[in-house]
Amino acid sequence: MNVEPSEIFKVLSVETRFKIIELLKSQGPMGAKVISATIGITTAAVSQHLKILKQAGLIRSERKGYWIPYSIDEKAMEKCRQLLTEVCTCGCQGTGGFNKSEPERSNLVSLKQYETELKNELGIVRQRLKELSTEKN
């Protein structure tokens, strides 16, 4: 990814682009029409957002006949994660967990919020696994 980190996060600061990234992350490769129908904006608008995401190196596409599926560029997403880890102040060192050496940050409210986030993430993973297993059958 040869784009400046500030530009990457500027690209991701647009809610629609972030929704597209989340959709591709949870559902896998998709075409512009399916993305459009799923998030409720025009195909032309989706195409413009996809173009910007692709220029930033966050997604990729490979033509398959008439269909052009878009997917997340995993290496670019890992680079974003690394950039955030560098500036993160929670002390988790990229683990996403709490730093046990800082008990003041690990209060009950924060831990309950973290538990909820983990449950939501687990639900998404389970749903995706279910979808993938039914696709293969």
Question: Could you give the topology of this structure?
Answer:
Layout: H1 5-12, H2 15-27, H3 32-39, H4 43-55, E1 59-61, E2 70-72, H5 74-87, H6 108-136
Task: Provide structural commentary.
This protein is mainly alpha-helical. The protein is built from six helices and two strands; from the N terminus they run H-H-H-H-E-E-H-H. Helix 3 (32-39) crosses helix 4 (43-55). The longest helix has 29 residues, at 108-136. The radius of gyration is 17 Å and the shape is globular.
From the structure above, extract its key features.
globular, 137 residues, 2 domains, mainly alpha, Arc Repressor Mutant, subunit A, single chain
Radius of gyration: 17 Å
Helix count from the secondary structure assignment: 6
Shape: globular
The share of residues in extended strands comes to under 5%
Strand order of the largest sheet: 1-2
| Low-confidence residue ranges | none
Biggest β-sheet strands, sense, barrel: 2 strands, antiparallel
Highest-level CATH class of the largest domain: Mainly Alpha
Query: How many domains make up the 3D coordinates?
Result: 2
Element-by-element helix/strand order: HHHHEEHH
Give the termini distance in whole angstroms. Answer: 37 Å
CATH topology of the largest domain: Arc Repressor Mutant, subunit A
The helix fraction, in percent, is 55-70%
> Looking at the chains present, what oligomeric state does this protein adopt?
single chain
CATH architecture call of the largest domain:
Orthogonal Bundle
The structure class reads mainly alpha
